[in-house]
Amino acid sequence: MGSIxxxxxxxxxxxxxxxxxxxxxxxxxxxELETKYCNSLEANKKKGxxxxxxxxxxxxxxxxxxxxxxxxxxxxxxxxxPPCQTFSAAGRRSGGVIGIQDLRGQLYEEYCNILDxxxxxxxxxxxxxxxxxxxxxxxWRQIIKAFSEHGYELHAEVIDAADYGVPQHRERLVMVGVKxxxxxxPMPTHGPDSLNGPSLVSVEEAIFDLQIPGELKTKGLGGLYxxxxxxxxxxxxxxxxxxxxxxxEPVFAWRSKFHDLLYKANRKEPSRTLKASxxxxxxxxxxxxxxxxxxxxxxxQSFPDKYEIVGSYGQCVEQIGNSVPPRLAFxxxxxxxxxxxxxxxxxxxxxxxxxxxxSTFRQRQRERSQKFKDIAAQAIKEKYGSxxxxxxxxxxxxxxEKFYISRPNKFTRQVSDKKGKAxxxxxxxVLTETAAHIRIDMDEQPVTLSSxxxxxxxxxxxxxxxxxxxxxxxxxxxxxxxxxxxxxxEIEAALVERSKFFTLIDIYGHYANRGDVVNIETNLTxxxxxxxxxxxxxxxxxxxxxxxxxxxxxxxxxxxxxxxLEEIVETMRALRYDIRTWLSHPIIGKGKIIxxxxxxxxxxxxxxxxxxxxxxxEEYSI
Length: 622
Prior knowledge:
Blueprint (H helix, E strand, L loop, with lengths): L3 E6 L5 H8 L2 E8 L2 H13 L8 E4 L17 E3 L9 H7 L12 H11 L3 E7 L9 H12 L3 E8 L10 E8 L24 H5 L86 H7 L12 H9 L4 H16 L19 H24 L14 E11 L2 E5 L9 E9 L1 E10 L7 E8 L8 E10 L5 H14 L6 H5 L10 E7 L5 H9 L9 E2 H8 L3 H13 L4 E2 L11 E4 L27
Parallel strand pairs: 1-2, 1-4, 2-3, 4-5, 11-13
Antiparallel strand pairs: 5-7, 6-7, 8-9, 8-10, 10-11, 12-13, 12-14, 15-17, 16-17
Helix pairs in contact: 1-9
């Protein structure tokens, strides 16, 4: 049997293509939007690495790709999966994405159109494992319906790449559509679910020959969290520093960060999923407290050493992190080839999954979580000698301090025990500590009585993170809504000074996946009670944040028009409230609004807008 002509869609850096090539498929053409990915494809084509000299690389939006170029050209297989951010957990946390209501989530329709023109015998569609459950399963049902209506019998499974020899736990949804005939997924080739196969491939096994003999551990990465990395045991992440893991001096709230923050790979096991856009403190990190090299990351993603990834370090990390592991692609491709294209009666190279087969990788994942707790407990015991440090709040004597705050700029506060000069704006702070409670009384100086705003604010549920305190209240007289920001600056300072936490969000938790321990209630009064103040008060409650709210409800609650709401949202964003609509995040679509936190974002880098831009948002309004 000769090579099977194949069209690659959403090719990325070529991970899926490499695996299919190794299984005997001929990649006739690649369609990829991003130029930097196409540069990698072209570089390997030029060297004859897994692409033939005649492979066409189309650097184009798939919506502008003309499939008639390959009609009746003998293409029998199409591979590729649309961008996954719209259905991924990371996407939900970063932008409130909502599946097929995001334009990227509609690209499967282009896929179907191409199938209609080329009519391959089989296609392989790959995406994030969360797709079937996103938006209560509605996007998945629509995708299944669309592919079925185009004449394909569909077979889909969520697969962990580690079960197929990849030194990385990477759960992906794989769907195989067959025009005529049927298909069964292959049995795992590695690990406990395999048929007497080898163990899962560990990080150390994959990269041992790339290590520098005698390499010393670094002292960390620097920056806000980097110094913590050396303390993290192998296999754990930022959660090592949470109360839930037994840490006596918590630094983070439970689920307050992405699970890859400060994640250090366990060299004796597969790594967690590689990320395409990691931040400075995002793992996996090497056990010597450094980032992995590009050569090491290629191995963890199962790319052949001779396969070239072109670009800067960050660009290469992105391309590797967004790729399908070639080893997993090879297993799927070989299985497709044997079942769809081979008429041989010989035994299949990859044993097929029997009907009652059920993977245990989720169960193993839970077992690893318990193991991590045991590892954390041992590490904490070795450092602290005890797993808990109980402080009786009643035994703490009440304490009051008075000081003054001046601000050279918005994000800088200077503390003094003396009042500011006449005519200079400053804040008078009286901070009182009593049993389990912090009280802050704050007065802006001078106060303009005719337009002053009185703010009463309560933060509760702190005890898990601040052993001495459970609640904080702030009472403030301020001159304008802009000064609410400074009130929260004082709250953050008071909490950080009395804990090991670094920021207010570290204590409160990430809006999309909070443990709902810390609660915030706010009351604002002003002689005029403007609609803006009413809106700020509404969104300054935990109960009104972190979830999408229909615009109709907001118009009713605030008694305003749509245009007034747009103006209020714009003003609140200027006040550094992370309130999002389709104007700041087009992927949300019209008709919804979300405020992520019940307080303004205090970091100068925290407030962002979506990088996704649509050419015509009217077409995708909801």
